[in-house]
Specification:
single chain, about 290 residues, alpha/beta, Rossmann fold, 2 domains, seven-stranded parallel beta sheet, globular
Length: about 290
């Protein structure tokens, strides 16, 4: 997809973090942008900040865990701006309550919430928007936000959900190519980005109240994220990937060696690769961004 001016983008999880940065970058390119998020007050503030710069945007509340809510988002977005050309399934959460637990010890509520937003929300987005995007026949692009956790060994809800998004996105790319669609696909696999995902529980449904958060782990995650890339940097990389029809989007090259080592362990038919925290700490101290 090369032409952006006058086209329409929909971004979930757009009230803050990577989602807001993507919405802002699309607006700067002359696109009409639908910002979608579950957090209405934050969404309203995000929309106002873009409207004050004369960008053509609108905000729609959505619960990506609920299929009907995502389909309603698609209907409202099309009613507001017509054809949709870019879809960013970006909304994501981390439970923060499974630190140190074995996979069989993590409660069902944690699994249901994280998988519901991170995986099912992406699938619902594809189901709601792809038929429309294919039918209008204009060039477009889909970006699904996974994580480097989707390329590394793991086992908790966050890691499992991101592995699922990666596999789903690869299937999406294959199916679009098989249909000679004018729609490209990318999967975004960032490392540490300065966002508030550590505080995702603020939007957790009461019906899925889970285990008490691991506060020490949450504070550690917060400190690590604050040293990560700025969302605007990631958005710029994503925008370039869309323009160049690049599927795998990995904004943190410092992780390349770890991903490569993981694949080598798989091919060696050995045990799962584990990240050496001392090596990571040394490289972080040297200025590498993970």
């Amino acid at each position: 997809m090369r032409q952006f001016d006058g086209k329409t983008a929909v971004v979930t999880g757009a009230a803050s973090g990577i989602g807001f940065a993507l919405a802002e970058r699309f607006a700067k390119a002359g696109m009409r942008v639908v910002l979608a998020d579950i957090e209405k007050d934050a969404l309203d503030r995000a929309v106002r900040s873009l409207e004050e710069r004369q960008y053509r945007v609108t905000g729609i509340t959505v619960d990506t865990m609920v299929k009907d809510s995502v389909h309603a988002l698609a209907d409202r977005a099309m009613a507001e701006f017509g054809n949709i050309h870019v879809l960013c399934n970006n909304a994501g959460v981390a439970s923060g309550g499974d630190g140190g637990k074995a996979v069989w010890e993590i409660g069902d509520a944690d699994w249901q919430w994280v998988m519901g937003v991170n995986f099912w929300g992406v699938l619902y987005g594809l189901q709601a928007f792809l038929p429309h995007m294919l039918a209008h026949g204009e060039s477009g692009h889909v970006v699904n936000t996974a994580s480097l956790a989707g390329l590394m060994p793991g086992g908790g809800p966050y890691s499992v959900s991101k592995h699922g998004v990666l596999a789903l996105s690869e299937g999406l790319h294959r199916d679009l190519k098989a249909r000679s669609a004018a729609i490209g696909a990318s999967v975004l696999c960032p490392g540490l980005v300065s966002t508030r995902i550590y505080d995702a529980a603020r939007n957790r449904p009461a019906s899925l109240a889970g285990s008490t958060r691991n506060e020490a782990g949450t504070q550690q995650m917060k400190a690590m994220l604050q040293s990560g890339k700025q969302p605007a940097e990631v958005a710029e990389i994503v925008f370039d990937a869309i323009g160049n029809d690049r599927f795998y989007v990995l904004p943190h090259p410092a992780w390349d060696d770890f991903v490569r080592a993981r694949v080598e362990h798989v091919l060696a038919r050995g045990n799962p690769f584990t990240v050496d925290p001392q090596e990571m700490a040394r490289r972080r101290a040297a200025g590498e961004q993970f």
